[in-house]
Design goal:
There is one protein chain. The relative contact order is 0.05. This protein has 16 helices and no strands. The chain is mainly α and 277 residues long. It is flat.
């Protein structure tokens, strides 16, 4: 295929436009103008492409679009938004799903983000998570599975039972909207056995939204051995489930509390200096 650096062409046109309009706009105004110019550029005829940028990619087949995506990435040329938008508009073509398993993390991450939460991509996401690999790609896949957690539930339960990326599986399960005893039992057991993962697993219970978890959260927050970060996350979870915790606690000797307090005081001092200047 003919690789055209559309973003590079746009940058050239933008530089000329900014030169001709020097002094007309503030930096903030330019931030609003540039995206509009890029959008207009998408409908501008480019002789080298014999088409507009949008039309150039719209004329491609699904396989050609995916090949173009790979080529832009492997050759280090910026991937045009027009290409990504066209792929997104095709609603997760089969060729794109194949890229999710790419060994190139940049290509795989792009493929995941373009496929989105389309259930047809879920098997590829779970295969990726089960096989290991790049953490950023795994996180991207997890985000998409969370958006369709009810459809992803069964395989997430299976992988969790087999000890495959348990934290990510808990995160996915916590986003299920359909209430089911298996999911609640797993999230609750994980919380009660959490150890250092206590704040995160409290957040899973908050996200799942089952008030039956309240007694366990209240019992845990009342312990004297929890630190300030754990306390904050537990209190958030309790309030998210409609509960309340009112017992006064003193964390003045807690290193996390002191660190956060120092950061707040530093920020307040900086604001005072800016105000006085």
């Amino acid at each position: 295929m003919k690789l055209i650096d559309f973003d590079g062409l746009f940058d050239e046109k933008l530089a000329e436009y900014m030169r001709l309009n020097a002094g007309k706009y503030t930096e903030k105004q330019w931030e609003n103008i540039i995206p509009k110019l890029y959008k207009q550029f998408g409908d501008t005829f480019i002789p080298r492409a014999k088409n507009t940028p949008k039309g150039y990619f719209a004329a491609m087949t699904d396989d050609e679009l995916v090949e173009a995506l790979q080529t832009y990435c492997t050759e280090g040329v910026p991937v045009p938004d027009f290409l990504c938008n066209e792929l997104e508009g095709r609603k997760c073509p089969q060729a794109l799903i194949g890229l999710i398993r790419s060994k190139d993390a940049e290509i795989a991450t792009l493929a995941v983000n373009l496929a989105g939460d389309d259930p047809r991509a879920f098997d590829a996401y779970f295969d990726l998570l089960e096989e290991g690999g790049d953490e950023d790609v795994a996180e991207a896949a997890c985000e998409q599975l969370k958006s369709g957690a009810d459809l992803a539930k069964e395989r997430a339960l299976d992988l969790y039972a087999r000890g495959v990326r348990p934290e990510l599986m808990l995160e996915i399960l916590s986003r299920c909207k359909e209430r089911e005893e298996r999911v609640f039992a797993i999230l609750l057991r994980a919380f009660r056995e959490s150890g250092e993962e206590l704040p995160m697993r409290a957040s899973y219970l908050a996200a799942y939204g089952d008030p039956r978890a309240l007694p366990y959260l209240l019992e845990t927050i009342d312990r004297d051995d929890i630190n300030f970060l754990e306390f904050q996350e537990l209190r958030y979870a309790i309030e998210a489930l409609g509960g309340e915790y009112t017992r006064p606690r003193d964390f003045s000797d807690d290193p996390y509390y002191r660190e956060i307090l120092a950061e707040q005081q530093g920020a307040e001092e900086l604001m005072r200096k800016k105000t006085d200047a």
